[in-house]
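The material for today's practical consists of a large collection of protein records. There is nothing in a record beyond a sequence line and a structure line. Backbone structure tokens are a discrete shorthand for how the chain folds in space. Nothing more is needed to start thinking about how sequence determines fold. As an example, a complete record with its sequence and its structure tokens follows.
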Amino acid sequence: MNKSEVKFLLISPGKLRKTENYRKVRINTLNWRRKYKLSLVKRKRNINKYLIASYPEEIYLNGKNFVKIKCRGLDKNDEFTISLWAYMEDRGIDEMIYRNPMVSWENQQGSISRFTITNAGRLSFATTRGGEAEVTSHSDKILFPGKWYHLTIAYKKGIARLFINGKQPPDGINCIKSRLFPKKEEIFIGKDKWNRFFKGRIKGVKIYNIALREDEILNE
């Protein structure tokens, strides 16, 4: 590409007459756009350097036990990702909406954040303040007992996105108003503040201080 062609790239082809120069600009612009988009697709980041907490072992949760892990740096960015594998033994038929908490913590504002499966079998991320659920994100897809699911919540600047087996289900996105980052450095697996417990198995828990993209979640 010579200097004259580079100069034409800075001008909108629509402002030029359909001359030889116009054709050069259009061809070069399309080629540049294709090359630029291709470079974005190929660009990968090392997500492991953003991993701030993990518990890779499989945990058997009998409805009474839980695991507590340390998590530092979750408030470094206004974003995070929680990724795990979950197997429910029993979804429950009681009236506890958030009966199966997988990961939870107390926030800086005194509210509670929890990544859970509702008694209706929907994946959910909710914040509760003063006993009331504030803004929640639910999926429409029903999760059934007796199956392993890869479940993810990716949060960035007030937007929470849910993923089931690497794909975002209908209604799997919503806005969260509270500041979600932990008051302490404690994260609970299989339990929330109100002593509601998960019954089943959880493994491969990973927490990042960035919101993973869909392609990164799919390759997790």
